[in-house]
Amino acid sequence: MRLSALYLGLFAICAVVLVFYVTDLTSSLLTGQTKRVVQDEIQVLANFYRRGGVTLLINHIDRRSREPGANLYTIAAPNGKILAGNVESLQAGILDAKGWTARPFTYRRFYQPEGTPGHRALAEVIFLSNGMRVLVGRDLGEPTKFRSMIRSSLALALGIMLVGALIIWFVIGRGALLRIDRVAQASQKIMAGDLAQRLPISGTGDEFDRLSSSLNSMLVRIEKLNVGLRQVSDNIAHDLKTPLTRLRNKAEAALAGREDTASYRLAMEEMIEESDQLIRTFNALLMISRVEAGSAVAQMDTVDLSAIARDTEELYEPVAEEAGATMTSDISDGIVVSGNRELIGQAISNLIENAIKYSTDGDGGSTIRISLEQHKRNIILSVRDSGPGIPENRRNDVVKRFVRLDESRSKPGTGLGLSLVDAIMGLHGGRLELASSDEIKQTGLCARMVFG
Amino acid sequence: MICTSSEELPSISTMKILVIEDDLDAAAYLVKAFNEAGIVTDHASDGDLGFYLATENTYDVMVIDRMLPKRDGLSIVSALREKSIETPVLILSALGQVDDRVTGLRAGGDDYLPKPYSFSELLARVEVLGRRKGMRDNDTVYRIADLELDRLAHEVHRAGQRITLQPREFRLLEYMMKHAGQVVTRTMLLENVWDYHFDPQTNVIDVHISRLRSKIEKGFDQALLRTVRGAGYILKAEN
User: Fold this and answer.
1) How crowded is residue B90: how many other Cβ atoms within 10 Å of its Cβ?
2) In what order do the strands lie in the sheet with B147-150?
3) Is A231 part of any domain?
4) Which of residues 358-417 of A touch B (CB under 8 A)?
5) A294 touching B, CB under 8 A?
6) Domains identified in chain A, total number
7) Same domain, yes or no, for B180 and B87?
8) What is the pTM of this model?
């Protein structure tokens, strides 16, 4: 509202300045023209004066005075008494100065009705050698009329503009203001804590809608982060209390138990083991949140994914063998991605550790297969195992923090491994896909890191 | 987690270190533990004092906390490096992950240890930074007892008998021999041999070590590669 008033004001000032400039320019042009006409006339009069003296001059002036549309002529005695011409009276003092009148003056014509205002004119006054004064001038009626015409049209135009602006403001500006108000109301509610609230979208697809919809996507992201945060704090409360309780119980049991160094030592070692596990959980949690916080956290380079996959495979191969699993691989050479070696290595090792942990229970050899291949635009690194796999309806859940399948609760682990892989893939603009290794029998887990 | 019994510790010549740490409890614990390990320890509780001590005295290693009152750890390290004081620095930090390590090392730190850490881990790293007990960098052949590792030919012999190692096993042995007589921890091995800084949940390093051990010790009398409980491994000849 204030803005539109400001615009209107500025515009009006510009218009006024422009119109004044134009009228002044025009009237100075017209004045110049007046002066030329007067000077020509004076030349003619001078000729008469030279040829026949004052008598011929007076005659001529008399004749010219009666012509229609004539200039102003006055011939006056040295004392100022008007002798001839078409002017009844002049503004006082005009005949006293030689040359052009400094500014327009007023005069009255013969036969002009009483009470009407005097006319305005510009004139040149000449002193003859005998002291008589001759005034030749021109009425300023036309330039003045012209100027007032322009000024009144300006007033009209400005009036129309003002009305137009008011209408436009009412129709468009007010509509926009109302929408801004609605957005403001919605954001008030959001600030009050209702993150599910969204900004209204009118459906016209204009700038306001575009702004609202990008703000809405921002809200979706914030809400997701917020939900994630709440979920994490709930889970931390739950999942960290358990090991803390165990830790406390061990200390209590040791205090209540036998008082000898060996059993104290054993209890202490168990407690350190327990707290290391807690620290590990904290580290994993911190890491996930930092990775999820975005790309600013991790430095991205061009990294050789094939080499990382091989390094990690080689790191775990003896572990797998010791656990009774056969690890095979099919890794294409020279696949590079933009990423962080450390994080990708961590992700692959999480998947391999899971595969070893969950596939080596049953009888008979378990197999783990790592493969890396380029599928058109996607680069896929997959780790598949011959374990029990994850039921289809639980695959979305296990990626969440601290979610573990009931069957796996007995095994050590933080419940954060897949969450971290998922976060790392998110950071790399890719995703983690979980499927069955054997699609027909629905067994085994195939975890795919898909780089987009 | 100080489970290292004294006979397993490397023989001690006096090493002098500076610890800059503002948490007084933690600092008192560190000073006591380092002293028990035979390391003379000075302590500074803020950045200014720490920087003063670091420039006035000569130390073998400095352990610098990253976040300190008055002057932060990284700026101390870069200021020391600017003054051409090249004492090895280990940076301790509550910030642990990925890029914090990179910024720490870029500022001129030689090693980086995220909190919370076990003292045995810190001690092993300080020993490695401060003492060149093992082989020198430009030795082309590392020798310990009857074990010989040729870095140029990439060959390992024991008692004149050739031992075939995988490339990674070779690097593992090379690192162990370079720091022979010193405790190396699992994370140090993961960092230096595999160049990974994460904390694996499984005992990956132990498995690699036991493979290596069986290759270099099977059929020979003397055990060289020993486990230091609660800390890591040490490669040394019996006295």
Assistant:
1) 22
2) B141-144, B147-150, B155-158, B161-163
3) no
4) 412-414, 417
5) no
6) 3
7) no
8) 0.65
